[in-house]
Design goal:
mainly beta, three-stranded antiparallel β-sheet, 18 strands, 8% helix
Length: 224
Amino acid sequence: MDKVLEIHMTGWTATPRMPFVLSGNSVCMSVPSYSLLLGLIGCCLGRNVDCTEVKIGFRYSFDSVAKDLETRQRLEFDGKKVKPHTKGSDAYLREFHSSPKLTLWIDRLDWEHYFLNPVGTPCLGRSQDILKIERVCVRRVRQVDEATISGCMIPFNSDLKAGGQLVQLAEAYRENEEVGGGRLATKTAIFMAIPSDNEVMIRVPNLLQIEGENKAFYFHQFSE
């Protein structure tokens, strides 16, 4: 029997944005990506968290989808400096989730203190999408071959029998040592985002069940 750290979080809004949609209106995925959850954990720890440091399981739900009308300040580079765009600002619609609930499971029991006393303010998406840490506890889990799960993201394969949203994205990023070089994707893969209202019985590796409860989750191990 193994142990995991369980963290319960709630908020007013969340924005798990669909990656690579850089023009037009901003849309959300039904669940957050693993890179977003790594950033959330790093915010609580007060440092960048490498994907090799932790395994993550999660269950995410929300009440409804709504839209903000936001002003976007456009910039341009004239070869010497960045300045306001000559066409001025514009407005666009940004989707967000209302009343999000997130349960995280990680294998780092030694990080419990950081969730009881987070260094930074945990957010799920934008800086205004603040989460409140409701409860932190240690749970006993066991490995199972088959389980009913929802509100999570699992690697896609052709034998997977589950309904959800197919997305191709980087499971994690690392900072580039070169200043201004941007982030480096560790691995790009296809995932199945299973919404919280679609409970499915699946048989995949790394399924864990909580002792004494009929609750299971997929425990994601990042690629090296």
